């Protein structure tokens, strides 16, 4: 499991925050209208902050129920966004533009901007307002998000990952973000920010929050399904965003009627951390880094790094042949490549091949060489981070080192498994 690293600065707000500036989670849950409020707490273990069980919990037990009325929902965008859409339509903008502004990312980011502005201008706060203000203050700052998310890294650091899938994903995301950025820049009221630069920074912050903290859910009916299509809903749920990810979660979240729920998937012991799965965007390791700004660094053999069966890593041979391996699988194309090398054939024509000990051991060598290269890259990144006086550079460099270490573990596990298989032949 791994903490989501993007927590904002702690703040003071009477009984919502303790003497050490940590949030009073039961109080926050109650102010949002959630229940039960006594099962969970915020705590830290070895510097990792997460949500922990106050007592033993049973499989199937509801750990948290949060009303949708306390959430930010993509199906309830602010009026100024809808008015901008109508203006675009009246000016006969292209149908593509009209569709883009209805994208859930744009709508949910607009909800974040609206809620932030509301809390700035309110003079009197009710219980929900107090909870919302505290929650917003706990969200990560733009500068923190920029340190952790690769889409904001300078090219000099991104290239240190030496990993083309990540670099291509960042390029695609950068250009894809232009659409919601343009829509929101054109729609947001000028009173929300002091100047154009601040508006752009604030919109980027909202888009980052939506990327890292939103949930996708469908309606789960109390009784039998009434049939028909059920549209997915994208939401930002207070407190849910404080629950960390694990590839082996002990809880799940879902929507039921007018509530977002967290339910135990198995028995959870008192003082254990409650973890959910962030979904398909967490595998392989580079996607975790790309989507959420972290690599898993727990569960390893004593030194903090995990190896997961669904992680994959590319190895590059002769600077042009790319093969994706996992801890338990190697592709047939890699066996084909090595068979052609052994036969001295330079052709794309497939051979009738089998994994012989000779071919297998050659592949083991490729894997261990790639692992050694990942170790070298990891050490370079960590040394650069240690020697950097700028946190804006040291944090990304450490994450680059984490990615290389994750790749190294995957490669060595794959090599070890293949070597064991060959020994059993």
Automatic annotation (TrEMBL):
Pfam families: SET. One of its GO terms (molecular function) is protein-lysine N-methyltransferase activity. Residues 26-279 form the SET domain. Signal peptide: none annotated. PROSITE patterns: SET (PS50280). The lineage of its organism: Eukaryota, Sar, Stramenopiles, Ochrophyta, Bacillariophyta. CDD domains: SET_LSMT (cd10527). This is SET domain-containing protein.
